Amino acid sequence: MNLPHIRAGMEKEQLEGFMSKARAASTLLKALSHETRLLILCILSQGEKTVGEIESILGLQQAVVSQQLARLRLERIVTTRRDGRLIYYTITDPSLTALVSVLYDMYCGPKAADGASATD
After folding, report:
1. Going residue by residue through the chain (120 aa), what tens digit of pLDDT does each one get?
2. Under a CB-based contact definition with an 8 Å cutoff, are residues 118 and 106 in contact?
3. In b/e form, how buried is each residue of 32-58, taking b as 16+ CB within 10 angstroms?
4. CB 104: neighbour CB atoms within 10 A?
């Protein structure tokens, strides 16, 4: 696992770099800290979708889906593409798809289904 080596006596610039990256990660994790937004990202990790498609998959009202997509757009986690009257949503950064995949494996994969916790 590739973990940072934060220790006493580090160069100030290096520590500030870690702090900046930790702040960015914290902002991303706050945006992901809602079950509907996570489900939307799971859906979008399979490819672009319209609000109507996401609404149909989740069985939620259009207003709820649009509200959560607006938050994801505000945080620049998803982007849009217009085709006539339809607006398609997609995940902005491919590495975020990898993060969603890790979360899926931790909480929804075979080990999670067997009752093993993510901290075992």
Report:
1. 676 677 777 788 888 888 898 898 898 899 889 999 999 999 999 999 999 999 999 999 999 999 999 999 999 999 999 999 999 999 999 889 999 889 888 888 777 666 555 454
2. yes
3. beeebbbbbbbbbbeebbbbebbbeeb
4. 15
Distance CA 35, CA 41 (A): 10
Q: Do 62 and 52 touch, CB atoms closer than 8 A?
A: yes
35: which 2 tokens? 């079950």
Domains in the chain, CATH or no CATH each: 34-113 (1.10.10.10)
Q: What does the H/E/C string look like for the chain?
A: CCCCCCCCCCCHHHHHHHHHHHHHHHHHHHHHCCHHHHHHHHHHCCCCEEHHHHHHHHCCCHHHHHHHHHHHHHCCCEEEEEECCEEEEEECCHHHHHHHHHHHHHHHCHHHHCCCCCCC
